[in-house]
Amino acid sequence: MRSVYIFGDYIFETSPDTLSRGVQIIPAPSKQLSLLRVLLQGEGNAVKKETLLREAWPGSDDVEDHTLVQTIYLLRLTLGKMPDGREYVETVPRYGYRIAASISQQGLASPESNPWKRPSRGSGFVHSLGQIWRRFSSSSRAAL
């Protein structure tokens, strides 16, 4: 099942992991997105460093803490700061990290039920406007 997490100005969608702010998709490396997914699944609670390493780098037993710290740093740069000046990703000393913003989550059964998905060509409001414009244009030309 796909999930959508809303935190601050951001929307994070799983399967595939996608981060957006409003209608703009934010490009981010897959490790940052994997790390963000694990943090969001923590629902604002602190997530242990060991859990983050295991989930974001599955099957890699030789990943060091420095790699996690560097990826968190890059994720913070990607997200920027919250309106109150705090970081979205907060360090919990001697434990791990957490998302500092409030998080709401919605499960999606299929891509068609995604409320943030743009309508496909041939459907929706934009398609209807296109049909009206074509009818108007052709009737205007016929009247000339």
Task: Describe the fold and architecture.
The protein has 144 residues and is an alpha+beta fold. Helix content is 38%, strand content 22%. It has 4 helices and 8 strands, in the order E-E-E-E-H-E-H-H-E-E-E-H. The protein has helices at 30-41, 49-56, 65-79, 124-143; strands spanning 2-7, 10-13, 18-21, 24-25, 47-48, 89-92, 96-99, 103-108. Strand 1 (2-7) and strand 2 (10-13) form a beta hairpin. Residues 2-101 bind DNA.
Structural class: alpha+beta
What oligomeric state do these chains adopt? single chain
CATH class of the largest domain: Mainly Alpha
Q: Please compute the radius of gyration using only Cα atoms.
A: 21 Å
User: Which strand order does the major sheet show?
Assistant: 4-3-2-1-8
Q: Output the CATH topology of the largest domain.
A: Arc Repressor Mutant, subunit A
What's the end-to-end separation, in Å? 55 Å
Supply the number of helical segments.
Answer: 4
Number of domains: 2
Q: Roughly what is the average pLDDT, rounded to an integer? A: 81
- Major sheet attributes: 5 strands, antiparallel
Within CATH, the superfamily of the largest domain carries the name Winged helix-like DNA-binding domain superfamily/Winged helix DNA-binding domain
Q: Quick one: how many beta strands?
A: 8
Q: What is the ordering of alpha helices and beta strands?
A: EEEEHEHHEEEH
Which geometry do the CA atoms define?
globular
Structure in a nutshell:
By secondary structure, the protein is an alpha+beta fold.
